[in-house]
Amino acid sequence: MKTEDLIRGLAADGHPGRSLERGMALGLLAGVVAAAALFVLILAPRSGLLSLLEEWRILLKFAVTLTLAAAAVILALRLSRPGADATRPVLALLLPAAVLAAGVAVELLSTPRAEWRADFIGHYAVYCVSLIPLLAAPVLGALLLALQRGAPTRPAVAGAAAGLAAGGLGAALYALHCIDDSPLFVLAWYGIGIGIVTGVGAALGRRVLAW
To answer: What percent of the chain has pLDDT over 90?
Structure first.
């Protein structure tokens, strides 16, 4: 059977798609539960977090990371279905980027230039870059296992999407603990942490999602 015929057959069969969605949902749930348990073991929510949720910088961190994770999960699903159109999920990734860009612009306009460097560096950049991949690891593993039910024609790209989703969720968990609230810090250090997970996802996806 030619590869093109196999792809068309897989794309036309609805049952694997439903199985993939169920597996993705279960994998996502299992990964988030494991990551939350890891968070409880090694970290704790920042003091007074609930009372601080009115601060726009804190809300921005969750808005960016969670919308990023949601868009990346949908993208990973689309990429695991041969012939599926991934245009909309790719465009959806522009939403968290736009939210973060707006936050950075507001921060630069409302903060004296002399404070930009301190906001950018923050207090715990090394912890941020280390802990986001650590918290994302269970989610990435679970998502890659779930995506093995699919048939991605570009396994590295599908793995990268899974890594992006896991990185977003890992970053959202870390944000519960993080006291560095500047959008400049989020852009730099959250971005690096999520980028690491995305790269690992691409490398693993190339191996475990190939068919």
So the answer is: 77
